[in-house]
């Protein structure tokens, strides 16, 4: 049983409203993390055709703030699997429709576990990347995750 990276691809949009902001008029980190978790879970569910639960979220990079009124685009796709686990790359960018600009703001790697109706882990398909574009996305995510891991090891040493 296999599923493709493309089948998991998910994109969500939000607009940053006052309830999502801090006292500086910028998106709360918790709001951004919530959107990332939801988008990642949808990608994992689409891939596995099962319910999923969040098992872990790796280092989160907040690269740029997201201001009140900006459009938030959250994009996720599966780049790896285990027996019951699904590895998902989640990236966030902000768009300013008035200025027609866009920038990367946040990224992280999530692990979800597929569960059956009783909440027990259940098997997931193997990842298939039949196109060059899918292979590039998978390889980029694997490289980024490895780099992130190496930086962590350096900080811990």
From TrEMBL:
Gene3D superfamilies: Hotdog Thioesterase (3.10.129.10)
PROSITE patterns: HOTDOG_ACOT
Keywords, in A-Z order: Hydrolase
GO molecular function, one term: long-chain fatty acyl-CoA hydrolase activity
GO cellular component: cytosol
Annotated ranges, domain HotDog ACOT-type: 6-118
Keyword ATP-binding applies: no
Domain of life: Archaea
Pfam families: 4HBT
Biological-process GO terms, alphabetical: acyl-CoA metabolic process; fatty acid catabolic process
InterPro entries: Cytosol_ACT, HOTDOG_ACOT, HotDog_dom_sf, Thioestr_dom
Span of the signal peptide: none
PANTHER family cross-referenced by the UniProt entry: ACYL COENZYME A THIOESTER HYDROLASE, CYTOSOLIC ACYL COENZYME A THIOESTER HYDROLASE
Protein name: Acyl-CoA thioesterase
Annotated organism of origin: Haloplanus rallus
